[in-house]
Amino acid sequence: MEPTGLDRMLRRVSIVATTTLAVLGIHTAAHAQQRQAPDAPPAAAASEPAPPAAPAPAPPTAAKAEPGAEVEPAPPPGYGPPPGYGPPPGYGPPPGYGPPPGYGGHYGYPPSYFPPPGPPYAGPMRLVHRTFMLSVGLGVSSFSLSAADITAHEVGLSYALHLNFGITPHWMVVVGVDGAWAQFSPGTLHGYNSFAQTTYTVGAQYYILPWLYSRLGLGLACLEFTGDYGHDGSDCRGQALAAGVGTQFLQTRSTSIAAEVATTVARYPESAQGSDRNDIWYSIGANLMLNLF
Q: Which residue, 47, 58, 219, 286, is most buried by CB atoms nearer than 10 A?
């Protein structure tokens, strides 16, 4: 039976309706999927290849342990400094700062601060603070008498003993004993021929340079004399002045040797002969001094 026009019309309507329902169903399903995963990339982008991910750092390989030794466990993955990380470089001196080329100091100090091994230091003189110093000297002197009616002089011996107490590297307090002895010609001084004078002074010593010093002191003097026939006597009422200039030519850590030119002057109100007059005895000597500090 040949379909009529109405059947053909109904068939067309049903095809269009079925097609419309199918399209609506697909569209509804797509919207529902987007609501469930809104952050998901579109389907078109899923087909593109994803960029390769950076490889994770390999965990450190534990060193092979000897038999019987404890093995330290390796750190968990991802623990430790990032790749390429290292300790910061050390801070060096700024440009232009540091010892000159060829500098050979010890631990950064000039070589002169560290004397080479061997005998005690005997280089250039150094000015040091000597809290205490003992000085002993011996030499030759010219011993003279100047009085109202007589003048005499002889070559004799000189001696010195000093106690020095340091205040600063330049200044020292000196307690000094300086003396001179001479044998005069017989009959020159009314029968007395052996005279010895010792001065006891307190003063100051000043180091002008590390190797050059001067000193000055005031105090008392004592004169002793001996006659031809064993007659001897003394007079310890003199007023004395002692002065000297010395130069050191050898120095170690605890000793030094100096050559000193010293003079002592003493005034006695009465002479050895007992007359009321002022006798002046003075000496000029050159001593070799040994200093211990």
A: 219
